[in-house]
Amino acid sequence: MTSSSAPIPVNKIRYNEQGLVPAIAQDYLDGTVLMMAWMNAEALQKTMDTGEVWYWSRSRQELWHKGATSGHLQKVQGLRYDCDSDALLVTVEQIGDVACHTGERSCFHQVEGANGTQVSPPPADTLSQVFNTIADRKQNPQPNSYTNKLFEGGDNKILQKIGEEAVEVVMACKDDEPDEIAGEVADLLYHTLVAIAHHDVDLRAVYRKLQSRR
């Protein structure tokens, strides 16, 4: 367990008639829901004792150390239970960034569209979604895309815009206009995301730095 999470007394959890409780695994950096599986009291205790997630396999009727075979371990960053004590939320560092046996990052990657079932990653936090769109523009340029025009201009264009937006944040703060401040900060964040994508820096690396400074 992490220093920020105290162990959960296993007898406080309300297990179902099979002695199981649903456990949802969530990425600790961007909040993406990765998977849902089941734990019994022993799996929960081993999860807390080892700092790695253990589940109960209903098909094999045995304890399941997540990632022991694939290498896609889940390192526990936090553990909590809901208001009825009958569901668990485990925040994890997903090793290999793959939780699903299909090779997808999340088990919740299927949506129904006009052409049937489609693969679509589940939503993460807003900043990550914007960054993913920016990264996609870099790999798959779009005509008349403002983001692609920034990439084409390189550091000179991107850094110029960051400087301009930073000044506008300062001015909005001096004017004490909350809506203007929010808008200018959003513009500054967007252009900063373009800069880190231009330099092939993953947003998750930034999140890890922020986590270490909490």
How does the SSE layout of this entry go?
Layout: E1 21-27, E2 33-39, H1 41-50, E3 54-57, E4 62-65, E5 74-81, E6 88-94, E7 110-113, E8 116-119, H2 126-139, H3 146-175, H4 178-198, H5 203-212
Parallel strand pairs: 1-6
Antiparallel strand pairs: 1-2, 3-4, 5-6, 7-8
Proportion of beta-strand residues: 15-25%
- By DSSP (H or I, 4+ residues per run), the number of helices equals 5
Shape: elongated
Q: State the strand order across the main sheet.
A: 2-1-6-5
Query: Structural class, judged by helices and strands?
Result: alpha+beta
Distance between the termini: 18 Å
Radius of gyration: 21 Å
Helix proportion of residues, in percent?
Answer: 25-40%
Along the chain, the helix and strand elements come as EEHEEEEEEHHHH
Low-confidence stretches: none
Q: Mind telling me which CATH architecture of the largest domain this is?
A: Roll
Pfam families: PRA-CH (PF01502), PRA-PH (PF01503)
Enzyme class: hydrolase
Pathway: Amino-acid biosynthesis; L-histidine biosynthesis; L-histidine from 5-phospho-alpha-D-ribose 1-diphosphate: step 3/9; Amino-acid biosynthesis; L-histidine biosynthesis; L-histidine from 5-phospho-alpha-D-ribose 1-diphosphate: step 2/9
GO biological process, one term: L-histidine biosynthetic process
